[in-house]
Amino acid sequence: MTDVFQAEGLGKTYPGVRANDAVSFAVGPGEIHALLGENGAGKSTLVKMIYGLVRPDDGAMTLLGAPHAPADPRAARAAGVAMVFQHFSLFDALTVAENVALGMENPPPRTDLARRIAEVSQAYGLPLNPARRIASLSAGERQRVEIIRCLLQDPRLLIMDEPTSVLTPQEAEILFATLRQLAAQGTAILYISHKLDEIRTHCDRATILRHGKVVGTVDPRAHSARELAAMMVGAEMRVVDRSGRVPGAEILAVSGLSAAGLRGVSLTLRAGEILGIGGVAGNGQEALLAALSGEEPTAPGTVVMDGTDLSAMGPEARRRLGLLAAPEDRLGHAAVPEFSLAENTLLTAGARQGLVRHGLVDHGAARRFAEAVIRAFDVRTPGPGTAAGALSGGNLQKFVIGREVLGKPRVLVVNQPTWGVDAGAAAQVRQALLDLAGNEAGVIVISQDLDELLELSDRFCALNEGRLSAPRPTEGLSLEEIGLMLGGAHGMEVAHVPA
Amino acid sequence: MMTVLILLMGAATPILFAALGELVVERAGVLNLGVEGMMIGGALAGFAAAHATGSPAVGFAVAALAGAALSMLFAVMTQYLLSNQVATGLALVLFGLGLTAMFGKPYEGVKAPAMMAGPLGLNGMIWLGLALVPAVWWGLTRTRPGLILRAVGENHDAAHALGYPVRRVRILAIAFGGAMAGMGGAYVSIATVLQWTEGMTAGAGWIALAIVVFAQWNPWGVLAGAWLFGGVTVLQLRLQAAGVAVPVQLLSMAPYLATILVLVLISARQKFGRSGGGSAPGSLGRSFHALR
Amino acid sequence: MFRLEPRASASLGWQIATPVLAVLATMLVGGILFAAMGFDPLAAIRTIFWDPLFGPASGYSRPQLLVKAGPLILIACGLALGFRAGIWNIGAEGQYIIGAICGAAVALAAYPLDAFWIFPAMILAGAAGGWAWGMIPALLRNWFGASEILVSLMLVYVAQKIAAWMAFGPMKNPEGFNFPGSRNLQQYEAAANPELIAGSGLHWGVVAAGVALALTWFVMSRHILGFQIRTAGAAPRAARFAGVRPERLVALCLGVSGALAGLAGLFEVAGPAGQITESFGSGYGFTAIIVAFLGRLHPLGILLAGLLMALTYIGGELAQMMLNLPAATVQVFQGMLLFFLLGFDILTRYRIRRRA
C-alpha cells in the first residue's frame, strides 16, 4: 500500500521561532491520521505548508507519488488536497452556494452547483440549503458547508484542523461517521486535534508534535490518554488540587437576564464555589460575560451581588464593589496589545489598586503592580515595560488572570481561561482559580473545554442558543448527560451511513 | 419637463460615476476617502486633454487614466505600505487639490469643446453612466471575478486562506474606482461647467462617498442616490433662478444638507435594524498583511 | 525581495525619525518637481525653508511664523485627541469658520461700545460656536451612527456658505462702500486681538495655542482620560471593558476639537484676518490635520510640525514673490509631506527584512 501523502524533513522558521523542524510522516489511503500537539507545537504551520499557504524553508513533500510544492492553495486544491479550517474560511454575508463556489477551481453554473450541493449533502447525511446566508447558520451547519466544499472536489487528502472544537459531542459523532465513510472510499484524512479521547477512539495512527519536532508516530489505541499527553507535553501533567473548599452563602444572583444573545438566563453563585458554564462557542458566552462585567448594562434586578442591584452599573462601578471579569479575547479585549503590561494594569485595576487617584495616573504604582502580577503568576517577560502583544498566549493569559486575582475579587467571571494556552500555563491558571475559590470568592468559569469544567467546577450548567440550563452538581455527571445539556446535536439528522 | 430631466441627469452623472467606482472599491474591502482628489484630478486632466484635442471623448479617456494614476498612489500606500486608509484618503484629497491648483492655472478662462447631445438630448456620458449601473450589478453578483471581489471585501483572511490574491484584487478595484472618479470629475469640467476652475468639484467626491453608504453598497441604490442629489441640485438652482427670497448662499447649501440628512436616515435605519438591505463589507477599511 | 515583520510595539526611534525623513523626501521630490517646471530647485528650496528665517526679508517673515503656527497648533491639538481615539474630525475648517463668525457676531453687535468684557465674550462665543459645530457630527454619530467623517466634512461646505452669506448679508460693513465683508475688527480696539509684543507675531491666539499644548500634554500623559482615549483608539473593546463609554468620548473629542478650532477662528478674525469675508476659511483646518499627523499626535511634535507648516506657508508666499512659483506649491508640498509620512510610517510598525 503506497502512501497518499509523505512529508520529508519539513522545516519552517518564523522570526524568533522554529515553527517546524525536520518533520517527517506519511498518510496512507483510507487512513485517519491524527496530528497531535499542544497549542504552538507547529501543527498549523505544518498543514499550511501542505495547503500551499506557507512555503517550507526546507524538506520536501510527496502527494500520490509526485512532488508536492504548491505555490498557493489553488495549486494544492488542484493536486487533490482539501482543507476544513478551524476558523477564517467562510464569508458571512455570502450564501452557502457562493461559499462553496469560492472553494472550487471551476465551479459549475449556479443551478448545477445547487443541485450538486444537494446531492452530496444527501449522500453524506449533511443537509444544507444552498441559498441560505452563512450568517444565519449554526456552528455545526457552517462546518458542513466547509466539508461539502471539500467533498465536491473529490479530495485525495482531506485536512481537518481542530474540527470538533466548535461541535457538541453528538455533532462530533456525526462528523466521525462522515470521516469513516470517506476513509472507506480511500481518502486519506489528516486530523488535527489536541483532544486525546477522540483521537484514541477514531484515528488509525497519530503523529505527535512538540516544539515543532515529531516526537513519534504511534497507534493511539495502544496508548492511554495519559501516555499520549505525556508525549505531547513532554512531562507529566500537573494535577490540580481542589481540596479545602467549603461553599458559603449566596453572593451573586442573576435572574431573567435577557440581552442580545441571551434569553432569560438565571443563576446563583455561593462564596467559595466555582460554577462551570459549558457550551459551544457562539451560544451567548460573550454576551453573558459582557452582562456580568458591566460592558452591557441590563434590565433592573437582573444582576444582584450581596443584595446590591448592579444591573445599571458600568464596569468601573462593579469593580469597586468586587465583581471582576476576564474576557476570552486576550488581544484587544482583556488587554491592549500595543500597550505595556504596566499600562494594561490600568484597564481594570485603576481603582482597586489605587493606580488612579482623582483622575491622575500614578505610572510608578502601575509599574509596581504589574511587577507584582508578573512575580505572583510567574509571567515570563523581560519586565512591565514589555508590550502585551509580545507575550506568548500562555504568559499573557497568566497576566490577565493574575491582574484580576490580585484584585481580591468577591466574584470573578472568566471566559475561556485557558483557550490557546500551553498545558503548563493552563494548569497554573486553573490552580489560581481554585485557590481564589478557596479564599471564599465566587468564581464563574465559562469554557468550551469540558475536561476543564469537570476538573474545576462544583456545579455545571450549559449555554445553548442563549439559554442556560439548570445547574447540576459536577460530581457524577456523564459525558452523555453533558452532551444533552449542551443542546444535543442541534437537531441535526444523524448520518445514515450507506453500506 | 424634458429640460429638468436633462439637468437632473447632468447633475447626477458626476456623482453616479464616482459613487459606482467607490462602491466597487468598498465592496473589495477598501475605504478610499480620496474620491474628491481623484475627481478634481480627472476634471483638470480631462479638461486639458479635451481642450488640446478638441475631443471630449479623448478628454474622458485621459480623465479616467489620471484618476486611476492618482488612485495608484493610494493603492501603493495602503496595500504595500499598509498605511491607514482614512489618513491616506485624506492625503490624496489634499494632494489632488494642490496639484490641480498648481497645474491648472494656464487653463483658467479657457472654454471646453462642445459635447454632442445623444438620444433624448442626453449626452453619451449620461448614457454610459446609466449603462454602468446594471453592468456593475451584474459583474458583482453574477460573475466569478465579482464573487471573488466580494469575498475579499467580506473576509480577507478567509479569501487569502482559500488562495485568492487579496492585494491584487484590491489594487484592481482601487484602479477602477480611480478611473470612475476621474471620469466623474471630468464630467463637471467638460460637460457641466464647460471650463476649469480651482476646486470646482466642490465636495462632489465626498457626496459620492455618502451616496455609497446611502445605497447600502448596492449599485441600484447608488443610482437612486445620485438622482436624489441631482434633484436637490436642480431644485436649488431653479429656486435661485426664480428669485426666491432666500439668499443664494443658503440655497446652495442644499446638496450638502441633503447629504447629511440622507446619511442620518440610512444610518438610523441600519442602527435600529429595520433594514433588509446590505451592510458594510466585513473587512472594510482594514489593512491586510499575510505572513508567509 | 523584502518582507515585512510586524513589531510588537511601535519603535520610538522610527516614530521620531520618520517625520524627519518625510520632510527630507518632500524636499527632494519637490526639488525634482521644480526642476521639471524649469525653476532652480536649490533656490526654490532655500527660499521656502531657509529665507523666511534667515534670509534678507526675515525681519518681516519671522513674526509671521507665530501668526501662522498659532491657529495650526491650536486646531491640531484638538484633532490629535480625536485621532488618537479613532474619531475622525476632518471638519475643523468648518468649526474654525463658525467660531470666527460667532466671535465676530459678538463684536459687531457690541460695536462701537468700548468695554472690557467684549473680547472675553468673543472668546467664549468663538469657542461655543466651534464646539456646537463639532457637536453636530458627534450627536449624529451617537444617536444614529452616521459617519462623523462625512458629516463633519459636509459641514465645512455649509460653513463656507454661511461665511459667504454673512459677508454679503447680515455682517456686511454698512460703511464698506457695498463691498462684501464685515467691519475690520483690528480697527475696533475693544474687540481686536493685537500683536502683544511688537515685531514678534505673538497674539492671544498664540498664547492659547501654548496653553492648549500644555493641557494636551497633561491630559494625554498624566490623566486617565488620555489613557482612555488611547485605549479607545488602540482597542475599542478593551476600552469598553475598562469602563469607557464610547459615546462620551465621541462627544468629548469632537466637542473639544471643535471648540479649539472655533477659538483659532476667533483669534484669526479678531487679529490677522480682521474681518469675515467670503473666503475667510483659508485651509488652516485641513492643514492642521497634516500638523497633527506629522507631529505624531504628540504635543511636542505638534509644536514642531506647526512651526514647519507655518514656515512652508510663509516660504511659499516668498517663493511666489521672488521666483514666480505658483501659489499652490505649498498645498502640493503639504499633501506630499503627508503621503511620505504615512508611507514611511511602515518603518515604525514593521521591520523590513531581506527575504532569505
3D architecture notes:
The complex is a heterotrimer of chains A (about 500), B (about 290) and C (about 350). Chain A is about 35% helix and about 25% strand. With about 500 residues, chain A is α/β, with parallel strands linked by helices. Chain A has 2 domains: about 5-235, 3-Layer(aba) Sandwich (Rossmann fold); about 250-485, P-loop containing nucleotide triphosphate hydrolases (Rossmann fold, 3-Layer(aba) Sandwich). Chain B is mainly alpha-helical. Chain B has a single domain (about 1-115, about 125-270), classed as ABC transporter involved in vitamin B12 uptake, BtuC, CATH 1.10.3470. The termini of chain B are far apart. The model of chain B has no long low-confidence stretch (mean pLDDT about 90). By secondary structure, chain C is mainly α. Chain C has 2 domains: about 1-40 and about 325-355, no CATH class; about 60-325, ABC transporter involved in vitamin B12 uptake, BtuC. Helix content of chain C is about 70%, strand content about 5%. Chain C contains 15 helices and 2 strands. Chain C is globular. Chains in contact: A-B, A-C, B-C. At the B-C interface, helix 3, helix 4, helix 9 and helix 12 of B face strand 1, helix 6, helix 7, helix 12 and helix 14 of C.
Short note summarizing the structure:
The complex is a heterotrimer of chains A (499), B (292) and C (356). Helices cover 72% and strands 0% of the residues of chain B.
Rg calc of chain B: 19 Å
CATH architecture of chain B: Orthogonal Bundle
CATH topology of chain B: ABC transporter involved in vitamin B12 uptake, BtuC
Structural class of chain A: alpha/beta
Strand content of chain B: under 5%
CATH class of the largest domain in chain A: Alpha Beta
Largest interface: B-C, 48 and 48 residues
Please tell me the CATH architecture of the largest domain in chain A by its name.
3-Layer(aba) Sandwich
- Rg result of chain A: 24 Å
Proportion in helices of chain B: over 70%
What is the rounded distance between the termini of chain B?
A: 61 Å
The chain-level mean pLDDT of chain A equals 86
Uncertain residue ranges of chain A: 488-499
